[in-house]
Amino acid sequence: MRDVYMIGAYTTVFKKHPGLSFGDLAREAYMGTLADAGMDKGTDIETGWLGNCGMGFWGQNSIRGQALFQPLVEEGLFPARVPMFNVENACATASTAFMGAWKDVLAGTHELSFCLGVEKLFSPEAPERTAGLFNQGYITSQHDRLVEEMNRVGKMVGSEFKPGDDRTIFMDTYAMQAKWHMWKYGTTQAQIAAGAAKNHNYGALNEKAQYRFQMTPQSVLEDRPVSFPLTRAMCAPIGDGAAAALLCSKEYLDRLPKEVRDRAVKIAGVGFSGGMYRNLDEPGLTRAAADKAYKMAGIGPEDIDVAEVHDATSFCEIYQCEMLRFCPEGEGGKFVESGATGPGGKLPVNTSGGLVSKGHPVGATGLSMLAELATQLRGEAGDRQVKGAEVALAENGGGVIGMEEAVASVVILKKE
């Protein structure tokens, strides 16, 4: 199979950017990625992949990538006649754009492909935009079925499913997943808080993070309740941002300057899977995606040095550590609470701050994870650097079907 490399990666600061447009954010991410790859123009780019969920609510549907990149074409910064493919896959949108660019190079039809994810969630003048975007993240024609499933689980764990107007339905489904895990395995709210505090403390060290303050487990527990057992500090915030990557073949890489080759990161394994209404004792879809990625990379979970996982809520880190086989099922709470996923731990997770601290502009998240891991593998992460990191894993989920996501992506990167 053909080797594919990431030679450039970049993420904007994730925050509320009321003064910046989708185009402004995309331009920064694109130019930042070129600079990271030692380029000032994307002359050799042969395909582009644009991931976004919400531009339709701002008036631009269908040809979103073309709308964002036409000015760059006219300025000579992005090559003319390059096809732009538009993708949307809920919170795994950016990972899906990455997969498209990766497949272009993997197939041997292209040598250099670009992918970008961009999102604006902050819309104070029209909050219905934000609500509308999130309300499309589940099977809307099966709303009653989702509620019935949550009520079924709620009866098991002794908790009624009550979506609230002050939050998305995702926070309530994540809360029900957490309650089931607590009922089944004895996981505690304090263990969830330990993971949240750890990620906020990592985020305080990340200049690109939306939240840059430290927290203790106790302060996490004392924050405003959202949907038990989740407090505000355990939930990803609303914000804007963009992230991007530039992928190339080994043949193209060999023609680049040594300083670029030395920072290239190999894409060792990729796995995607789809969600379904599963039995509660059945592993989630991330397990299937991870096993595919491990097989392709020819390694196991014990070989991972650092990981980014999709903690839209802090319970997710506990659960995904189990699905990724970092610890046995049911022991994720103890694993996180022990410090295993923190600085100096067995397997540092979410060194970027995770979604709860770094932020979660839906269409950009997956590529921001890969940018963080590239930084780690290059040894350029500063105070949050994982010593000796050579193999990294990113897990990104999107949407919801019953008690799991609708799509999951797992990508394994290796330092060359």
Furnish the topology, listing elements before pairings.
Blueprint: E1 4-11, H1 22-36, E2 47-51, H2 64-74, E3 84-87, H3 93-106, E4 112-120, H4 128-134, H5 143-157, H6 169-185, H7 189-203, H8 217-221, E5 225-227, E6 230-231, E7 240-249, H9 250-253, H10 258-261, E8 265-274, H11 285-297, E9 306-308, H12 314-323, H13 332-337, H14 354-358, H15 365-377, E10 391-398, E11 407-415
Parallel strand pairs: 2-3, 2-4, 9-10
Antiparallel strand pairs: 1-7, 1-8, 4-7, 5-6, 8-11, 10-11
Helix pairs in contact: 1-2, 3-15, 5-6, 7-12
Concise account of the structure shown:
Keywords: Transferase. This protein has 416 residues and is an alpha/beta fold. The mean pLDDT is 97.
Please characterize this protein's 3D structure.
With 416 residues, the chain is of the alpha/beta class. It has 15 helices and eleven strands. It has helices at residues 22-36, 64-74, 93-106, 128-134, 143-157, 169-185, 189-203, 217-221, 250-253, 258-261, 285-297, 314-323, 332-337, 354-358, 365-377; strands at residues 4-11, 47-51, 84-87, 112-120, 225-227, 230-231, 240-249, 265-274, 306-308, 391-398, 407-415. It has a nine-stranded mixed sheet, sandwiched between helices. The chain has a two-stranded antiparallel ribbon with strand order 5-6. α1 crosses α2 (64-74), α3 crosses α15 (365-377) and α7 (189-203) packs across α12 (314-323). The longest helix has 17 residues, at 169-185. It is globular and about 60 Å long. The two termini are 17 Å apart. The model has no long low-confidence stretch (mean pLDDT 97). This is Thiolase family protein.
